[in-house]
Amino acid sequence: MILLPAIDLYEQKGVRLFKGQYDQMTVYTEDPVSYAHAIAQKGASWIHLVDLEGARDGTSPNLDIIRRITAETGLSVETGGGIRSFETIETLLGAGVKRVIIGTRAIEDEDFLKEALNRYGDAVAVGVDARDGKVATHGWTATTDRDAEEFIMHLRDLGVSCVIATDISRDGAMKGTNRDLYRQLSGIDGINIIASGGVSSLDDICALAEIGVYGAILGKAMYTGAVTVEDGIAAAEGRL
Binning pLDDT at 50, 70 and 90, where does residue 107 land? Predict the structure, then answer.
């Protein structure tokens, strides 16, 4: 399993939200590029970046930060938040981003997703954010009536190779990851699942690795010191 330390971007800073609420935001770094360099120096190979303003508004206000992290750190970058046009995808991939995560538009416009998959293949992943088992959109501010697991199976059938699955109720709450959810999702053949939300201990990472998900995102626990990047990578690789 790969570990993907996360930096959520808002107004050029590295922040974390509590359960996706923009009014419950903590700033953890004023310099996310330097923070990304430190993550690379601790042995990470991937980093997960989210443009929170983009996710909410459909814009790309933190594009320069993403571009710098991609160009300067040597990390493989996946990024999401506000990716709702082919132009944005091409800009990010052209800057060296390895994987772009389409969220809201993948849910609302299947033709767009199909064309993105046709053009960019495995460089396109889909973010499926779930609240009480239902898919949420628009930076977690709206909830649909679509069942998350059924939607992921549908994405697989469309040709999506990777899904970043987030349990919003666990995100930033430091209450542990939803192991039952990821055990269920890992049983879907033909698609890689990256677990996001709630990783708060090495035990969580070890459990996800044992479950067999493709990757796990490390967020707030890294910032609070509950899990170091070095130990998290060791747990993900089965060395703890």
Answer: confident
Question: Whole domain around residue 214: which residue ranges?
Answer: 2-236
Domain count, the chain: 1
Closest by CA to 54, choosing from 65, 38, 43, is 65
Residues 184-233 have pLDDT tens digits of: 899 999 999 999 988 999 999 999 999 999 999 999 899 999 999 999 99
List C-alpha distances in Å: 66 to 47, 96, 100, 154, 232. 11, 10, 12, 30, 23
Beta strands 46-51 and 21-29: pairing type?
Answer: unpaired
Cα separation, 6 vs 18, whole angstroms: 14
Residue positions annotated with a catalytic role:
8, 129
CATH number at residue 32: 3.20.20.70
